[in-house]
């Protein structure tokens, strides 16, 4: 059997604070043994397990890997609004007039991620 991905690991300045943001974003939970000030914090969610590790250096360039989020129970635009309210920042808007496209955001520490259309939106634009 091949290896399986156990965690997606993200370097950060404040592991617990960033894990808290992502737990809210993904409707997940921060590990019950993870506390503010800890070197590491894990987020468990239905889609992925993310591990945040405190490192001394800050982010200096664009991510080479990023997460693509697909909302399940709301539209892409509603999800972007929700994530911005949680502390994300819109970096680039790739939405098109026909309803397709995505939005690139940054989490509170500047890590880029994208929000795509929901399954319902994909179905609606493919059948239009």
Identify the notable features of this structure and list them briefly:
single chain, 128 residues, alpha/beta, four-stranded mixed beta sheet, 8 strands, globular
Gyration radius over CA: 16 Å
Largest sheet: 4 strands, mixed
Strand adjacency order, main sheet:
1-4-3-2
Number of H/I helices: 3
General shape: globular
Helix percent reads 10-25%
Distance between the termini: 42 Å
Task: Write down the overall mean pLDDT.
Answer: 93
Number of strands: 8
Low-confidence stretches: none
- What is the N-to-C order of secondary-structure elements (H for helix, E for strand)? EHEEEEHEEEH
Alpha-beta content class: alpha/beta
Proportion of strand residues: 25-35%
Task: Please provide a written account of the structure.
With 128 residues, the chain is an alpha/beta fold. The chain has 3 helices and 8 strands. It has a 4-stranded mixed beta sheet, with helices on one face. A 4-stranded mixed beta sheet has the order 5-8-7-6, covered by helices on one side. The protein is globular. The relative contact order is 0.18. The model has no long low-confidence stretch (mean pLDDT 93).
């Amino acid at each position: 059997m091949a290896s399986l991905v156990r965690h997606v690991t993200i370097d950060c300045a404040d592991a617990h604070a960033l894990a808290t943001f992502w737990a809210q974003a993904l409707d997940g939970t921060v590990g019950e043994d993870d506390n503010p000030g800890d070197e590491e914090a894990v987020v468990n969610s239905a889609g992925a397990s993310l591990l945040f590790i405190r490192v001394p250096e800050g982010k200096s360039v664009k991510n080479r890997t990023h997460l693509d989020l697909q909302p399940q129970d709301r539209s892409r635009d509603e999800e972007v609004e929700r994530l911005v309210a949680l502390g994300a920042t819109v970096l680039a808007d790739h939405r098109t007039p026909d309803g397709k496209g995505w939005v690139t955001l940054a989490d509170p520490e500047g890590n880029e991620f994208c929000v795509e259309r929901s399954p319902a939106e994909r179905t609606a634009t493919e059948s239009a």
